[in-house]
Request: fold
Amino acid sequence: MAVSTTGEVSGSARRGRRVVLWRHGQTSWNVERRFQGSTDVELTGTGVAQARRSAGRLAGLKPDAIIASDLKRAAATAAELAALTGLHVVHDEALRETYAGVWQGLTHDEIIARYGEEYAAWKRGEPVRRGGGELETEVADRAAPVVLRHADKLPEDGTLVVVSHGGTIRTTIGRLLGLDPRSWESLGGLSNCCWSVLGEGVRGWRLMEHNAGSLPEPVLGDDT
Reply:
């Protein structure tokens, strides 16, 4: 696995199809470490700037298609890349962040204080409906097929950009790589407007880059 630490998109020779999973820009709830989940929170000014800067880099990959969550923070991020590439963004609610019930709107510290045992069980890799919401496997069940369906439409060496959310991206990567759900947490979180790259190999999808784009920015968000 090659992990980018320079903030630059890899210029190595392309082989097979490629999926770039790009997390949205910063929101006020990210800064406050407040769990967003499916709550529709907009980008901050910083988030818009992050999206614009990252879009300039990703445009260099000459993507063939862009799909995105329909939540405002992801849609606005995707719009920056669409403006540079001229591509139409296909929005799909299946790419939304994990629904986390009563956790949504709470800060990280509030979640620990009120639901500490539930949080600890999730961190141990147990199947937990955080806040009474979705299981991670259920998020993968809805998101991964959408990614695969659009990837199947790519030309032989084409690139798909998926604009989504930290938790949804991690579970989708875990599913596409065939990892045990208990190990998905080991992938780590994505910083705002950073991305991971999956490349198609003879044995299936491979993780080529993870949390690339602006390292070592802190990871602020839902699934940390």
In short: The longest strand covers residues 204-212. Confidence is low (pLDDT under 50) at residues 1-8, 10-14.
